[in-house]
Amino acid sequence: MAISFAGAFAGHDKALEFRTARAAVLANNIANADTPNYKAKDLSFDALLSNESSKLHLRSTNAKHMSGSSLHGEPEGTMYRTPSQPSLDGNTVDMQREQAEYAQNSLQFDTSFMFLDRKISGMKKALTGN
């Protein structure tokens, strides 16, 4: 029986890709905190998940089964953040929020990496018998 890497990693590899992309967007927000008319951006995991799930084709074996389509219309990918206190120059970056989001994203990246590392370690042990 063959084991595919996609199945073995259980999505942790995709989570790392998302966390890396989100870190880049948040770092860009922090770097542009003093740029006039800069609009803060963020990536939505829900939008990414709905984009990925729309690629799946679910099989229905009964007419009473629910369809696999999404019911919400959230845009996919990068979204602009609604400012709580926009500045006079049109910049919508809130440094405290950006730093907190970046720190939280960093912790979530570390957690995903730890899970992926443990998956790989488990696969190595299964292959070597140690």
UniProtKB/TrEMBL annotation:
Organism of origin: Marinomonas hwangdonensis
Cellular localization per UniProt: Bacterial flagellum basal body
Subunit comment: The basal body constitutes a major portion of the flagellar organelle and consists of a number of rings mounted on a central rod.
Region (Disordered) location: 61-91
Family: Belongs to the flagella basal body rod proteins family.
Signal peptide positions (record): none
Record NCBIfam families: FlgB
Chain intervals with Polar residues compositional bias: 61-70, 81-91
Gene name in the database record: flgB
Stated name of the protein: Flagellar basal body rod protein FlgB
Record-level GO BP terms: bacterial-type flagellum-dependent swarming motility
Annotated function: Structural component of flagellum, the bacterial motility apparatus. Part of the rod structure of flagellar basal body.
